[in-house]
Amino acid sequence: MTIADIRKATDTKMDQSLAAFQNNLTKIRTGRANPALLDSIHVDYYGSQVPLSQVANVALLDARTISIQPWEKGMGAKIEKAIRESDLGLNPASMGDLIRVPMPPMSEERRKEMTKLVRNEGEAAKIATRNLRRDANEAVKKLVKDKAASEDDQKRAEAEIQKVTDRHIADIDKLVAAKEAEIMAV
Questions:
Q1: Could you list the residue range(s) of the whole structural domain that residue 168 is in?
Q2: 85, exposed or middle or buried, with CB in 10 Å at 0-12, 13-18, 19+?
Q3: Distances in Å between the alpha carbon of 35 and those of 26, 28, 72, 85?
Q4: Are residues 21 and 111 both part of a single domain?
Q5: Is the pLDDT of residue 76 over 90?
Q6: Which of 129, 120, 118 lies closest to 170, judged by CA?
Q7: Which of 57, 99, 102, 158 is geometrically suited to a Cys-Cys bond with 68, CB 3.0 to 4.6 A?
Q8: Are residues 141 and 116 in the same domain?
Q9: In whole angstroms, what is the distance from residue 66 CA to residue 34 CA?
Q10: How does DSSP classify residue 2?
């Protein structure tokens, strides 16, 4: 493995870490309705647990309401039960075949709790990025130790890896700030 391979692999892993962080942020509730909020809910479908999106059409009715249209008649009650039992604090209402999930307005205290949760997620993503930097630097040091690269190459590689790390951490900070602003908007 060369220094270029290490740098490319590290950049790819950091991008994956950033994508995972973005995915985690979509699951954090804001005052606004978001169909991705229900991605973690699984419904009992003929004895097996399947994601909600595989048994119903999930869409937005308006800024504060998610609509769920089950594909089969008998699934409505099971979907409502799964949403009520989730830890999201949502209360679905059935209207014939359509299930409406109104998003209750969040209190100021709840908004602050959510921003703390976002900051914790951001810190975990930064730690993952820094761990990837450490692993890459150790791989470069091993190349130098095995005489496959010079110490000058090591210094250059560590500087480039640091630039990649700084860029990803800045992206994480931007995402955290944007999500906090979204949560605190009334």
A1: 3-27+107-184
A2: exposed
A3: 9, 12, 20, 17
A4: yes
A5: no
A6: 129
A7: 99
A8: yes
A9: 7
A10: -
pLDDT at 30 over 90: no
Question: What's the CATH code of the domain at 149?
Answer: 1.10.132.20
Same domain, 20 and 66: no
* Residue 107 per-residue DSSP state: P
Answer whether 171's CB lies under 8 Å from 18's CB. Answer: yes
Confidence of residue 186 (pLDDT cuts 50, 70, 90): low
Give yes or no for a contact between 28 and 114, defined as CB atoms under 8 angstroms apart.
yes
Q: Indicate which CATH number applies to the domain containing 87.
A: 3.30.1360.40
**Higher pLDDT among residues 31 and 120, named by residue:** 120
- Among 102, 129, 154, the domain-final residue is 102
* Cβ atoms of 63 and 32 closer than 8 Å: yes
Whether the pLDDT of residue 96 is over 90: the answer is no
Per residue in 140-173, pLDDT tens? 999 888 888 888 888 999 999 999 999 999 999 9
Residue 19 and residue 44 in one domain: no
